[in-house]
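Honest question from a wet-lab person: if I give you the sequences of every part of a complex, can you actually get the arrangement of the whole thing, not just the pieces? Trying it with mine:
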Amino acid sequence: MPVVRLLRLRAALTLLGEVPRRPASRGVPGSRRTQKSSGARWEEEKREDRVKWRQLEHKGPYFAPPYEPLPDGVCFFYDGKPMRLSMKAEEVATFYGRMLDHEYTTKEVFRKNFFNDWRKEMTVEEREVIKSLDKCDFTEIHRYFVDKAAARKALTREEKQKLKEEAEKLQQEFGYCILDGHREKIGNFKTEPPGLFRGRGDHPKMGMLKRRVVPEDVVINCSRDSKIPEPPVGHQWKEVRSDNTVMWLAAWTESIQNSIKYIMLNPCSKLKGEKAWQKFETARRLRGFVDEIRSQYRADWKSQEMKTRQRAVALYFIDKLALRAGNEKEDGEAADTVGCCSLRVEHVQLHPEADGCQHVVELDFLGKDSVRYYNRVPVEKPVYKNLQLFMKNKAPRDDLFDRLTTTSLNKHLQELMDGLTAKVFRTYNASITLQEQLRALTRAEDSIAAKILSYNRANRAVAILCNHQRATSSAFEKSMQNLQTKIQAKKEQVAEARAELRKARAEHKAQGDGKSRSVLEKKRRLLEKLQEQLAWLSVQATDKEENKQVALGTSKLNYLDPRISIAWCFRY
DNA sequence: CGACAGACTTAGAACACAATAT
DNA sequence: ATATTGTGTTCTAAGTCTGTCG
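Yes, you can. This is the full assembly:
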């Protein structure tokens, strides 16, 4: 049901995607591309470009506090018998215990991975005893953390204030750095605390132990002549380096995927802000190229080369549907998700005719964060024909675009416009959609509230285009249920009123007097009123439902060129 | 080229806190 | 005053994309 609604909204949007923008201007003069041939200067500029700072000074990361053993009254039980755990084993047990009310702990993979890693932390003796997770009882541990959270919530105003001040002190000490003479806020100045890995979707590694980060894991990046951050007493940094071509202040390798985690600046910092500005400039530049690029990929649908055809169809999807590029993923390392280039035959269904349209493509796959993308969309005939061709003689698990990689696609895009990559289309189409929608929805004479509603609706249109969804919380389910109960009650009232109306009508027919006539009228009005109320309630429910699964934050934060919003504010 | 590491952006969940309804 | 709902912030996972190396 929700999918159907999303679909309806998306269908309206897809049309918007077709709206032609501003007449194509010629290539931007003086763009880097044109300088490329002039060799040395460009090379120099490029190198210059890579330098991110001249001075960088900071305090290093703030480490997660050491493990605090459980108080004596809190015990772990194995097979019904209390058992005192070694500190290491106990710490990992608390990671699991505090998650007891989370869905994760019901998942077989999570449990298996946790138990496996937990056993590695146990002493030989513990390992000898603890052989089955089913016999483990963490309920006391769980209760301890629940109580602790409740106690924290119940603190007095003063105590809360004190905690807040302490956090602020920490922020002041570790949360800022000096970059080229300016004090800049750091985004994440704390190392990630140890815990159980919470992968999204069907992640094969969920439940694995995420190791505690120690200074010996951490590489510090700062300028050579700055005050080098002090490692915590008794510890050393893994390395101190001075690389001014990168933005990070500290880094360590995480123990689940062996990938690198970074301490970086806050988005409001100059460096991050400039990058965001550049991103929107690139998207804006695409405006002048997009018509030509579109006619180019349309022409390529008929190319002799399979590779070119696949690229052209993929690009059409990326442009029209705002799909992500879709890099290859190592399987077994993460959840099975795809993007455009990694779509498989099983994700696509072709309908010669559906919903009154010809050449309908049905896409159904899990994208980033295992969010489902479901869309039925009419496509141009050559696209449809090409898809038939790409799917011919392939198994469901085979790649749809077997001759295409994100690298080759981006290489092609780079040739069409300097700085163009697949994700630029998402930024471009998101921003242009906001602009178009704002224009279509806002009226100068509207109230402020109505204008804000228009803005939010435009924002929602973008979120739907980009498939930004959120899980409906349990609180939402409850409030939805309340609403449904109300609707049900109203329905019964309507049925009752209808029955009474029928009775009154029969009465009036039999008696034919004025009194029975006025009763009849009254009943009629009552029914009408109740029906109206019912209709309003179901509209509310629909609205709530639609809103609840759309997440506006991500597009607001990453995709909408702020200049569009600012211009709109000034205008209205 | 293709695999891989590295760096950076984008993402939803969880949490904290404020606004509003009851 | 308290419960409920909405909103902003924090956290960190999961993407994109580039550069390097064999």
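Two things worth pointing out. DSSP finds 18 helices and 15 strands in chain A. The radius of gyration of chain A is 30 Å.
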